[in-house]
Specification:
Strand content: 15-25%
Distance between the termini: 67 Å
Number of strands: 12
Shape: globular
Radius of gyration: 24 Å
Number of domains: 3
Strand order of the largest sheet: 8-10-9-11-12
């Protein structure tokens, strides 16, 4: 019994050391995050006269005394999930800027109308199925080749705001300009290496779970050359899988995979894979 007790004490001791080591690394990461955020605010937002720490958060204070409290718990978690707990500075800075933009973005209301200056970089295409179209979404384009529809939304911290004809008139954009802007915004953080991987024979996937994973399939044709072909599985808006299809057997496996995809808790899109070429997206 004493031998087992000794082993147990060693295990508990090692576990305690591991937890303390992780906690120390996490605290160091949080300190680095706060320091970098402070420098970002000073350089990008001089309207804030001071930045103070408060219980692990940051308080941004303007010259008139008004304050904005930046709660950092979710941001710490996002950085901690990065490889090496955020060793890549560019990856950290993308999270910083996304969080700061959301913090300072005013709501769209009578006081803050939808303008290109404030909200232009948040307008994105939204792919949907006609049988499951949410209320309030204005269909801008139909995609008869795959049986889907396309709308445009503003990606706000509070949720998705449908872009209506009235909004488009306020923005002063033609349908073509709105489409170009929305696609450009969506392409900014697209991991184009997943397209290269699929072209090289690998199955790749994206699941950022931001509501636009399925919509990103619309960006792929422009990256393909004449004669190149891929299959995409888009069971719902928060997942896209790319597959190389070089035989009837591979196509059948893709179809089986699409039918097996779990859409529980999601608005379904397609139960069959679609073909992607430089000419566009179509059914097999």
């Amino acid at each position: 019994m004493s031998g087992w007790l000794g082993v147990l004490l060693v295990v508990v001791g090692l576990l305690a050391l591991a937890i303390r080591s992780f906690y120390g690394r996490f605290r160091g990461m949080c300190r680095r995050v706060r320091d970098e955020l402070t420098e970002l605010i000073k350089s990008a937002h001089p309207e804030f006269q001071s930045v103070e720490e408060q219980r692990g958060n940051l308080v941004l204070r303007r010259a008139d005394g008004s304050e904005v409290v930046w709660e950092l718990a979710d941001l710490y978690a996002d950085v901690a999930r990065l490889p090496g707990m955020g060793q890549d500075r560019e990856a950290r800075e993308r999270i910083y800027r996304r969080s700061l933009d959301a913090l300072l973005l005013p709501p769209v209301d009578d006081t803050h109308p939808l303008t290109l200056e404030a909200y232009g970089d948040r307008i994105k295409p939204y792919l949907l199925h006609p049988e499951h179209r949410p209320d309030g979404l204005d269909v801008a384009e139909t995609l008869p080749a795959v049986g889907l529809q396309l709308a445009y939304v503003v990606d706000l911290p509070s949720g998705l705001l449908p872009v209506t004809p009235t909004h488009r008139a306020t923005l002063g954009l033609s349908p073509e300009q709105l489409r170009s802007l929305a696609f450009q915004n969506l392409s900014r953080e697209f991991p184009w290496e997943m397209v290269e991987g699929a072209l090289n024979g690998e199955a790749t996937a994206i699941q950022l779970a931001d509501g636009f994973d399925a919509s990103r399939v619309l960006l792929i044709p422009e990256r393909l050359q004449e004669g190149q072909e891929l299959a995409a599985i888009v069971p719902h808006r928060d997942l896209m899988v790319l597959l190389p299809i070089k035989s009837d057997e591979e196509l059948e496996r893709a179809r089986e995979g699409a039918r097996a995809m779990d859409t529980t808790g999601h608005i379904p899109l397609l139960r069959q894979p679609v073909r992607i070429t430089a000419a566009g997206i179509s059914q097999f």
